[in-house]
Design goal:
single chain; alpha/beta; Rossmann fold; seven-stranded parallel β-sheet
């Protein structure tokens, strides 16, 4: 199938659109002329602050429900008649998956399976022209590839090697999505983002946790030696990437999305402490918040390094990140300074 350009009439059904990335994407899609129906179960990870500004937008609607609720999903597909599905809904907190994997299996695997079942039924009933332009975009993660040593990068062709219950369930959902393409011809796309950061992220995640600790003089725990490396991607750049993949991506393909912005955890925390201290009005050159760092026992199965080759999305879709590391961090810190309730 040929790629279909986005239009002002694009109707997106977004699952998990009250979560961190999902809520940023919903707002971004509306700004780009789309209509959005958001289905979200409003779990502990939901953050409605981002969605307050669009609550009265006639192009936006939200339904509180689980994607495993097949009768409701079937009804909403029939009523809303989307041109595309953007599937964020998932359990994503690695530490929670280690403590209790059951919710991750139910949400990430079973939930995706039930959603695919209903989307496939809907897709088969569409007129041929609408089938040609329809897309199911699945949001995965770079963690499905496993861990790298000191060098190298993952490509879309890299074998899967998940190491946590979270990444294992995301890998399983990826395989389900691909199976629905090869078996049932559902026109799918998959994106593998690196670590997103930005406004409205749950305070359990590293960057908002550090901001919260700096503002409240709390310990900043760092796993192991702090040498684990991640690639950090500003959430608005990822939202751009999703829209570009929807409009320009090749059906059946997956796309790595990263910023080539790699920091080990200790470097990141040290840099972030300095920015927070500066932006909250502390003029000292030597950031006192850095003294809050405490090294703790490493997480089980903690992947050492992630790095992705993102040349495919650059070449095929024309996407590159627009925000610098400092610009993205400053916007993130400023949002939390203005919305402290999101830090808990």
């Amino acid at each position: 199938m040929e790629s279909a350009p986005l239009s002002n009439e694009m109707r997106l059904l977004v699952t998990g659109g009250a979560g961190f990335v999902g809520s940023n994407f919903v707002c971004h899609a509306l700004q780009n002329g789309c209509r959005v129906l958001n289905i979200d179960c409003l779990s502990y990870a939901a953050g409605l602050r981002m969605l307050d500004s669009i609550a009265n937008d006639p192009r936006y609607a939200m339904v509180q429900a689980d994607v495993s609720n097949e009768p409701l999903v079937e009804e909403k597909l029939s009523d809303f008649r989307p041109n595309a599905i953007v599937h964020f809904a998932a359990e994503t907190h690695v530490d929670r998956s280690i403590a209790n994997a059951n919710a991750f299996v139910n949400s990430n695997i079973v939930g995706t399976f039930k959603l695919l079942t209903q989307v496939q039924k809907y897709f088969q009933k569409l007129p041929l022209d609408n089938q040609q332009s329809f897309r199911f975009l699945h949001v995965s993660t770079d963690e499905v590839y496993g861990s790298l040593g000191e060098s190298g990068s993952f490509a879309e062709s890299s074998p899967y090697d998940p190491h946590s219950p979270y990444s294992a369930t995301k890998a399983a959902s990826d395989h389900l999505v691909r199976a629905w393409h090869t078996t049932y011809k559902l026109p799918i796309l998959i994106v593998h983002p690196s670590n997103n950061y930005g406004p409205n992220q749950h305070p359990e995640k590293l960057i908002p946790m550090v901001i919260r600790s700096c503002l409240n003089n709390l310990p900043i725990p760092i796993y192991g030696s702090g040498r684990n490396v991640r690639d950090w991607l500003y959430v608005q750049d990822f939202c751009d990437a999703i829209l570009m993949v929807l409009s320009r991506g090749q059906v059946g393909q997956s796309y790595n999305v990263g910023a080539n912005n790699q920091w080990n955890n200790l470097e990141l925390v040290t840099y972030l402490c300095g920015l927070v201290d500066e932006m909250r009005g502390n003029p000292e050159v030597s950031s006192p918040s850095r003294k809050l760092v405490q090294f703790v026992e490493d997480r089980p199965g903690h992947d050492f390094r992630y790095s992705m080759d993102c040349s495919k999305i650059a070449t095929q879709c024309g996407w590159r990140p627009r925000h610098s590391w400092e610009d993205g961090l400053r916007k993130t810190i400023q949002w939390y300074l203005e919305n402290p309730e999101r830090l808990g």
